[in-house]
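Table S2 (text version). Query chain:
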Amino acid sequence: IRAPVALRLEDTSGNKEVTIGGNNYAYVRSVRDPSRVLCMGKNNWFIFWADPAVAGRSSCQWRIAHSTDVNKKRLQYGDRVLLYNRYWPSYIMGVSEDRRWVACIADTMAGFRVHQWVLER
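Corresponding structure-token output:
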């Protein structure tokens, strides 16, 4: 059994609230170590934790989209969201085929719930 990992979404422009959709981007930070952000690696499309020196790269920034309501602008607990990479916008943060690892998946797979993230408290 795997326990959830506590993550925090943070607007890249420093706004207190994270805006979804459009040209708004966020960092996905670790709650345990807030200096670390999730980034997308090139060539094999893996996800990794990066330190602050790397965090400014666009491969470490994510556009958040609601999985069913494209007009929604504010996130609420229970929402299902998709995380699109800023540098490689045709990829979303999802899970590997064996469902053991976080991985980047072609956005054509966005309809599969396994690649959608649920916001919890």
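Notes on Table S2: Strands lie at 7-11, 26-30, 37-40, 47-50, 62-66, 80-85, 91-95, 102-106, 117-118. The chain has a mean pLDDT of 86.
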